[in-house]
Amino acid sequence: MDSSQETVSRREPAVGTTTPPPRLADVLNPANLATMVAERYIRVQRHPTLPLRVYNYTERAQFGRVWNAETLTCRGLIVDDADRIVARPLRKFFNLSEYAATFLPPLPVEPFVVFEKVDGALGIRYPTPDGPALATRGSFTSDQALWATAYYRRRYGGIPAPPNVTYLFEIVAPQFRVVVDYGDREDLVLLAVIDNATGLDLPLPTDWPGPVVERFDGLTDLDQIVTQQRDNAEGFVIRYASGLRVKVKHAEYLRLHRILLGLSNVAVWEQLAAGGDLDAYAGSIPDEWYGWLQATVADLQARYAQIERTVQDEFAQVRAEVGPADRKAFALAVQHSPYRQLLFLLLDGRDYRQQLWRLLKPSYSAPFREAGDDG
Prior knowledge:
The protein is an alpha+beta fold. Helices cover about 35% and strands about 20% of the residues. The protein has two domains: about 25-250, DNA ligase/mRNA capping enzyme (D-amino Acid Aminotransferase, Chain A, domain 1); about 260-360, no CATH class. The protein has helices spanning about 25, 30-40, 60-65, 70-75, 145-155, 220-225, 250-260, 265-275, 280-285, 290-320, 325-335, 340-345, 355-360, and strands at about 40-45, 50-55, 75-80, 85, 95, 110-115, 120-125, 135, 165-170, 185-195, 200, 235-240, 245-250. The strands form three sheets. Strands 8-7-9-10-11 form a five-stranded antiparallel β-sheet, with helices on one face. It has a four-stranded antiparallel β-sheet with strand order 1-2-3-4. Strands 5-13-12-6 form a four-stranded mixed β-sheet. Helix 8 packs across helix 10. The chain is elongated and about 85 Å long. The two termini are about 35 Å apart.
């Protein structure tokens, strides 16, 4: 699986285009966007003081894998009240391993380049009357966004910002650590420059005074990239000539991330038993584990439904045999049933759901569990 070439062909317009800003309707179907917002697949947050709003796909879209032009594009898309696109981040991109799934097309056969996958939060630069500011994917006011805005203005505030392009950064600081330990490093690592009209990459500026994402020109083969393992690193981002990006995360990073999240089938069972917000829970989980999460949830819910049907059928049969008033006869009839407690809860008109979930508590297992891993 050789990439054949190391250099990605340029398919981008010149930096700093003076054409009018693109409109939201030029990029997305307004009716489809409204539907995605109404159905909670896309969330909109307004700026606290400026006529701006940011669109971001939700945990519900992630867990349900509702990926279309609108959800893929709304990954921190910033628009003003005249529906002009102010900042346009990268489209949602997936793991290399996910391209075996049916909802993704085959990978293109074309040249690619490989970059470091920095382990932080995406920072999206946008203009304001007070100078450039940074948002995160779904917020103008997250802790990372506020810190990054102050840092940017302090370090780079005097650098002219080209019109109609979006600079994207990875926000790195000790207080925002995910898994990789960068020590005391505080940085805005420049990842990409995007043309707001086309969504395509522009060349990274050679005179940018801050750190720029590392490029690995020696990695040209997908098999080599997948098997590459590095300590204290998240992985790689592959960018194809057409602009498509895919990510590859190191196994050790995934193992440590899973441990930090406390992710297991028992944790999923606890969430279901408590009636918790499964969409929100799914939103904290990396893409690599969505398939495992969906299968775990489906298995637990199917077992719950099966037991519930069995109990309801048994309850109806016993009531028909002994009548509604004879509690002693009912007790005799269900004394050998494995669901005796549930049947009495039904008899008394009480909620049996918590008791049913207790019957379903699984033996501990976790995604990508390895021998000797006590996570």
